[in-house]
Write a structure and sequence with these properties.
The complex is a heterodimer of chains A (291) and B (519). Chain A has 291 residues and is an alpha/beta fold. Chain A is built from eleven helices and eight strands. Chain B is of the alpha/beta class and 519 residues long. The chains are: A alpha/beta (291), B alpha/beta (519). At the A-B interface, helix 2, helix 6 and helix 9 of A face helix 2, helix 6 and helix 9 of B.
Chain lengths: 291, 519
């Protein structure tokens, strides 16, 4: 039990506490820990090379110094991007995209509450007209968050038209923030990706889209990078949301996604309750990863 | 299906260096093993599993070269293949059914792994196998999960037991217990229990899952695993093994391009077999998992067996016999062609099928660009014709063609092209048919199926009949090359699909690959 719930951070801490001097085993364990946290072989290799250089240069022998250097390294890599949400437009339209089952709808619910806490009025567009009962699911979340919902007029309606009606509704009623839920789609489905492009185009006839947030599941492995690349190409993603960070996975692949796409993480989801959504703080995330 | 695509690419690339070498040096092996290790890590395979895997491959490869004088590359491929099969679970296993119905199948997994969708697919599959499944809504956590299961159940034509509204209301353990009684009363022979998604670290929810397990004593507990999951797969799988002691794994979202390496890890770490693979959003995108075939797919040997099986399922024997007769007697009409095309579509997505073919690796990008609607357009054109026109395309004069183009929303050029291609193909098919019925029923119309070794004999009929053996050989070779460029034409039914066939490996490549694998 204790072994399996050991987080990456805990493993690293263990690593840094038990080992007195830095030797080959330290590096092996470090590699295992980094790989195990989904950093991916490329980042792992480059980080270890960096650290080895530094260790040599500063003649570090204490593993705790190594840990400090590692944390700084991670933090530095994460902090290079601007995590602020740009919601100053009125209405500010936010499109939520991602593959199936990453938690888009749940994030919409939490985000509606998150924004609502700042005294902004919110309307949610239920543009996931594909999956069974997705509209009801987002409606339930919106209700919990105290937000309005624009539903499709009939089942299977074109998601772009639902999105359009939502934005139209917001402009008519002066609602400040528009959140649009979209159906989960695997990035390998060309047709579905084009549909996203259409939603974007149609909405932009009314008003520019403020944010396109790509939701990534923290348990995802290296495939997250490919997902991000394809979604950027088709939907013009402006930021990332990492969900399910309350589990054992810490989302090390985010580092590689940021490195390769330059996209900032803007929100973090950490549970199933409506308040479990926070902004992104590089130092906190780095501490969660590295301990 | 681009499953494991990039892993295949990398392994193939790694092993390509070994091909053509007579002797395998320790340095060669080390280099290759490094590539394999890297590829597997990139594919999210657990580090320990990778270490074990590469260690075994290396040891066996070294030992093999010392002991035998076989083609070393062949040996390494075989070793990698065997080891992959070993990790993926060895033998394939069927679902265990209870001797005394109802059989109980419980689904468990992380949030968003695809449990509810899978419940529908499982129900649909069970029905096709002659069972009467009952879906039980024990996910009372996620908003409207109950409703989702009801919709999915309706789509699958299966009964759904959902006494509680969900959204946090109701006790899932009691629902599960009641469902057992309900199933016995109403004579459902398989009960599929959908549970809420939960994290491995959530002790409370894990206990609830264990309680459901205890209350229903399931014959199978299936751990539903997203193929995209990373290194956390092992931690999660162990947590679920401790929590609900699952008996099998189902891999979902395999239609993505995640390499699914985690599946290898989970199977190897928990020792539980992978039973099913879920490969799309439709309820029929679901199939029993075959470790050996998945391993071949990793090595990019394609999944021809699955392909044939699918083709046979969608294939109507009687229609095939009729079709063969029509071909032989040269009464093949546009109507028949339409029927053939519809049969082809029954088999599922073309892209998916082409992706299963060996050597399709190089085509993946082209596959992405290939427009499946091309078939729909061709269908539209034929459907805009009158029955008389379909029977006898010679009727098609200018004004008829214009009418058809308008009716199908295409241009006259498109109609002309279709008619020309139909003529050519019908001619080609008659030639083939005279040499006998195509070897696999229903396989004829698949674009991209290369005229393989078995077909070759028949194809020759259409080739040169020159009396000079050298000239004949040369002409036949040229003909074969012409086919390589346009496989669609040679198989007859790929109207307008030529684009999908470009870039196929040559017959030569296939032969080489087969030789390499000693098949």
């Amino acid at each position: 039990m204790a072994e399996r719930t050991l987080s990456f951070g805990a493993r690293l801490r263990g690593l840094f506490q038990t080992v007195r001097v830095i030797d080959d085993d330290t590096w092996d364990d470090l590699e295992a820990a980094l790989i195990g946290a989904d950093f991916g072989p490329d980042i792992t290799e480059s980080m270890i090379t960096d650290l080895k250089e530094k260790v040599e240069k500063f003649r570090v022998t204490d593993p705790r110094d190594l840990q400090r250097m590692l944390r700084e390294d991670v933090e530095e890599r994460l902090a290079g991007f601007d995590p602020t949400l740009k919601l100053s437009a009125r209405p500010a339209v936010v499109l939520m995209v991602g593959v199936n089952g990453v938690g888009k709808t749940t994030t919409i619910g939490k985000f509606a509450r998150f924004v609502g806490n700042y005294g902004r009025s919110v309307v949610v567009g239920a543009a996931d007209t594909f999956r069974a009962a997705a509209v009801e699911q987002v409606a339930t979340w919106a209700e919990r968050a105290g937000a309005e919902v624009v539903r499709p007029q009939h089942p299977g309606q074109d998601p772009a038209s639902v999105a359009y009606q939502t934005v139209e509704h917001a402009m008519r009623t002066g609602t400040e923030i528009v959140l649009i839920d979209t159906a989960g789609r695997l990035h390998t489905k060309g047709g579905l990706m084009d549909e996203l492009g259409k939603i974007k185009r149609v909405v932009e006839k009314l008003t520019p889209i403020s944010e396109v947030l790509l939701v990534l599941d923290a348990t995802t492995g290296q495939n997250g990078v490919v997902q991000a690349e394809v979604f950027i190409e088709h939907a013009g993603v402006t930021g990332l949301v990492i969900t399910k960070l309350d589990g054992t996975a810490k989302g090390g692949f985010v580092l590689r996604v940021q490195d390769e796409t330059g996209l900032p993480v803007k929100l973090i989801g950490q549970g199933e309750r409506i308040g479990d959504l926070t902004g992104f703080t590089p130092s906190v995330f780095a501490a969660g990863l590295v301990g | 299906m681009a499953t494991f695509g990039t892993l295949s690419d990398r392994l193939t690339q790694a092993l390509a260096n070994l091909r053509g070498k007579g002797v395998l040096t320790a340095a060669d092996i080390d280099g290759t093993v490094r590539e394999i290790r890297r590829a597997l890590l990139d594919a999210d395979v657990n580090l320990d599993v990778v270490k074990r895997f590469t260690g075994t491959v290396r040891e066996r490869a070294l030992g093999a070269t010392l002991n035998k004088a076989l083609n070393p590359a062949q040996q390494v491929v075989q070793i990698v293949n065997e080891e992959l099969i070993g990790i993926l679970g060895g033998e394939e296993r069927r679902l265990t059914f209870a001797k005394q119905p109802p059989t109980v199948i419980m689904l468990a997994g992380l949030q968003g792994a695809g449990k509810t969708t899978l419940a529908g697919k499982l129900a649909k599959w069970l029905e096709s196998e002659g069972h009467a499944p009952l879906l039980v809504a024990c996910d009372l956590q996620r908003p409207n999960a109950v409703q989702q299961l009801q919709v999915v159940g309706e789509q699958a034509g299966a009964a759904v037991y959902a006494p509680e509204p969900g959204n946090g209301v109701g006790n899932p353990v009691r629902v599960a217990k009641d469902a057992m009684r309900f199933a016995r009363d109403k004579q459902y022979d398989v009960v599929v229990i959908d549970t809420a998604g939960r994290l491995g670290v959530d002790a409370e929810l894990m206990k609830q899952a264990a309680d459901i397990r205890r209350a229903t004593d399931p014959d199978e507990v299936l751990f539903v695993l997203d193929a995209m999951i990373g290194q956390d797969a092992v931690t999660t799988a162990k947590a679920f093994q401790d929590g609900v002691d699952f008996t099998g794994v189902v891999l979902t979202k395999l239609d993505g391009d995640a390499r699914g390496g985690a599946a290898l890890s989970v199977a190897s770490v928990t020792g539980r077999p992978i039973l099913f693979a879920s490969t799309g959003e439709r309820l029929t995108d679901f199939e029993p998992f075959r470790p050996d075939r998945m391993a071949s797919r990793i090595l990019d040997l394609g999944d021809i067996l699955t392909l044939i099986e699918q083709a046979q399922q969608a294939f109507d024997e009687r229609e095939a016999v009729e079709m063969a007769q029509k071909l032989a007697t040269a009464t093949f009409t546009l109507d028949d062609f339409l029927k053939q095309m519809q049969q082809l579509r029954k088999m599922g997505s073309l892209k998916k099928m082409i992706g299963m073919l060996p050597g399709a690796r190089g085509m993946r990008e082209q596959l992405e660009n290939f427009d499946e609607r091309e078939i729909v357009r061709t269908e539209a054109i034929i459907q805009s014709m009158t029955p008389a026109e379909r029977q006898n395309p010679k009727l098609l004069n200018g004004s008829r063609r214009l009418r058809i183009a308008r009716g199908s929303g295409m241009t006259v050029t498109d109609v002309n092209q279709l008619v020309t291609r139909f003529d050519q193909a019908a001619k080609m098919m008659r030639t083939v048919a005279r040499g006998g019925v195509p070897q696999v029923p229903g396989m004829g119309p698949i674009p991209g199926v290369r005229p393989g070794a078995k077909q070759q004999g028949k194809k020759k009929q259409g080739g040169s009949r020159s009396g000079n053996p050298a000239k004949r050989a040369a002409e036949n070779a040229a003909l074969a090359e012409g086919r390589a460029a346009r496989p669609a034409a040679s198989t007859g039914a790929g109207f307008g699909l030529g684009a999908g066939g470009d870039g196929m490996p040559s017959e030569d490549d296939l032969a080489k690959m087969q030789k390499l694998l000693g098949r």
